[in-house]
């Protein structure tokens, strides 16, 4: 009876956290959401997402067909309804939370420890950031399938299961779906399965990982080509080392993350001392998997370095690394400390992290409120020229397309200088911008945009 109530309690806490604390289901669209949903609404046959390179390349520069399918399902079931899209995100987070609990329970053999670890993961600023942003829902949904594959690897590697074809097929299926949600899961899952297969001498598992990696590479090249470029510079060795040094900060969105990293390191040393060669093999496997994740993150290192102090959209980058560290830290905790000590450690870690959790919530409250205000103002005032100050300039472009606004009546702050901006202001008496919680006319900004090559007056207006 206790085990069933513990699962119910976990889900109840997850609902309370997402619906009432984060208020996820009451959000509107944000940044990439609008442009993605407008695009998938135009896809008639979802099979084309997986078979037509033109469709997938039009959706994203990266190889994420399952993300496109997830959004396509939203549009077909709910239309352009942000609340129901967020309900979908909450549901995805909850089932992933339960799957994480199941994996931790199988590896730690302790319900209380598994539940504590799952809740710790839920509090992570990177988890909160990924959950708040519909456009990064595929990180969570991909994690669910990756965890499901991990769950069955334990059974496959147990006695009497080493040649189980059905289990191999399940592991392969779940791993492939995870990879199609997000490219980083390809590196993480194949490295994990290959390392585990070699370490446990489960050669079918090792062969499966190699076959999946090769098939994925061929399929990816066919669908999106060889391009893996991002709209940002690649960093040098020194900057990449700095990126590694700031990763602990992202664990808690504060310097407390360094204390947690030290704790995980101490548990790792204790694990090796207690279990010897078996402990060393486990640590090496974790290092390989984390290394694979970090290599995958290299193209976005520059963006993380610029924004790591703020738990915003780029906290999606360390999401997988932080998840892996939670799993491994909780596993080591269960092997080293007695139950009461584990609970104490988990409570202390949660207290350290919660400050960052609250910071993350506040940041997203402000950013999403502004985006919603601009989007709704644009839709409700077709006769007014909007000055959009959203960093993601494509957000208001997506709003315009999603809701079939007859006439374009916005200027992005990124494109406020030039012939197009001047031609836009010429057809309106003034321009409106969001400031201090409400919209106001800004005649000085309006006049500044009208002037060719007059950057200084414009910048002065923007600072006021």
Could you walk me through the main structural features you see in this protein, from its secondary elements to its overall organization?
With 464 residues, the chain is mainly alpha-helical. Helix 1 (2-21) packs antiparallel against helix 6 (82-108) and helix 18 (339-380) crosses helix 19 (394-402). The relative contact order is 0.11. It is globular. It has 22 helices and four strands. The strands form two sheets. A two-stranded parallel ribbon has the order 1-2. It has helices spanning 2-21, 32-40, 48-51, 53-59, 65-78, 82-108, 111-123, 125-132, 137-156, 165-181, 184-199, 203-224, 237-252, 256-275, 277-297, 301-307, 319-336, 339-380, 394-402, 419-425, 443-450, 455-463; strands at residues 386-388, 410-412, 432-435, 438-441. It has two domains: 2-365, no CATH class; 381-463, no CATH class.
Condensed summary:
By secondary structure, the protein is mainly alpha-helical. Helices cover 72% and strands 3% of the residues. The chain has two domains: 2-365, no CATH class; 381-463, no CATH class.
Write the layout of secondary structure elements.
Layout: H1 2-21, H2 32-40, H3 48-51, H4 53-59, H5 65-78, H6 82-108, H7 111-123, H8 125-132, H9 137-156, H10 165-181, H11 184-199, H12 203-224, H13 237-252, H14 256-275, H15 277-297, H16 301-307, H17 319-336, H18 339-380, E1 386-388, H19 394-402, E2 410-412, H20 419-425, E3 432-435, E4 438-441, H21 443-450, H22 455-463
Parallel strand pairs: 1-2
Antiparallel strand pairs: 3-4
Helix pairs in contact: 1-6, 1-7, 2-19, 6-7, 6-9, 6-17, 7-17, 7-18, 8-18, 9-10, 10-11, 10-12, 11-12, 11-15, 13-14, 13-16, 14-15, 14-17, 15-17, 18-19, 21-22
């Amino acid at each position: 009876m206790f085990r069933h109530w513990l699962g119910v309690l976990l889900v109840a806490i997850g609902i309370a956290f997402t619906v009432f604390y984060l208020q996820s289901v009451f959000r509107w669209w944000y940044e990439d959401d609008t442009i993605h949903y407008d695009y998938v609404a135009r896809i008639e046959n979802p099979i084309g997402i997986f078979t037509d390179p033109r469709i997938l390349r039009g959706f994203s520069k990266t190889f994420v067909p399952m993300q496109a399918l997830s959004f396509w399902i939203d549009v077909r079931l709910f239309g352009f309804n942000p609340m129901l899209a967020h309900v979908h995100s909450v549901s995805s987070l909850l089932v992933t939370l339960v799957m994480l609990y199941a994996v931790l329970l199988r590896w730690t053999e302790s319900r209380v420890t598994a539940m504590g670890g799952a809740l710790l993961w839920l509090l992570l600023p990177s988890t909160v950031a990924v959950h708040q942003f519909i456009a990064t829902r595929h990180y969570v949904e991909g994690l669910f399938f990756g965890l499901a594959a991990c769950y069955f690897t334990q059974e496959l590697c147990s006695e009497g299961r080493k040649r189980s074809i059905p289990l191999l097929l399940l592991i392969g299926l779940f791993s492939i779906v995870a990879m199609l949600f997000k490219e980083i899961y390809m590196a993480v899952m194949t490295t994990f399965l290959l390392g585990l297969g070699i370490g446990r001498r489960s050669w079918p598992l090792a062969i499966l990982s190699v076959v999946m990696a090769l098939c994925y590479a061929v399929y990816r090249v066919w669908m999106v080509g060889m391009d893996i470029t991002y709209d940002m510079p690649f960093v040098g060795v020194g900057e990449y080392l700095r990126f590694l040094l700031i990763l602990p900060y992202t664990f808690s969105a504060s310097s407390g993350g360094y204390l947690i990293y030290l704790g995980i390191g101490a548990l790792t040393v204790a694990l090796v001392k207690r279990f010897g060669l078996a402990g060393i093999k486990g640590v090496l496997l974790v290092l390989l998997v984390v290394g694979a994740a970090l290599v995958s993150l290299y193209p976005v290192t520059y963006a993380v370095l610029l924004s790591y102090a703020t738990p915003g959209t780029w906290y999606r980058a360390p999401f997988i690394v932080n998840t892996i560290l939670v799993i491994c830290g909780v596993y080591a905790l269960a092997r080293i400390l007695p139950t009461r000590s584990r609970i104490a450690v988990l409570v202390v870690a949660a207290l350290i992290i919660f400050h960052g959790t609250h910071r993350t919530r506040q940041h997203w409250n402000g950013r999403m409120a502004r985006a919603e205000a601009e989007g709704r103002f644009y839709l409700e005032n077709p006769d007014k020229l909007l000055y959009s100050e959203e960093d993601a300039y494509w957000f208001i472009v997506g709003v315009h397309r999603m809701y079939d606004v007859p006439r374009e009546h916005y200027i992005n702050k990124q494109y406020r200088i030039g012939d197009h901006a001047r031609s836009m202001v010429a057809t309106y008496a003034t321009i409106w911008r969001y400031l201090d919680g409400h919209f106001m006319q800004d005649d000085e900004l309006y006049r500044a945009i009208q002037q060719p090559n007059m950057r200084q007056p414009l910048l002065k207006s923007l600072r006021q």
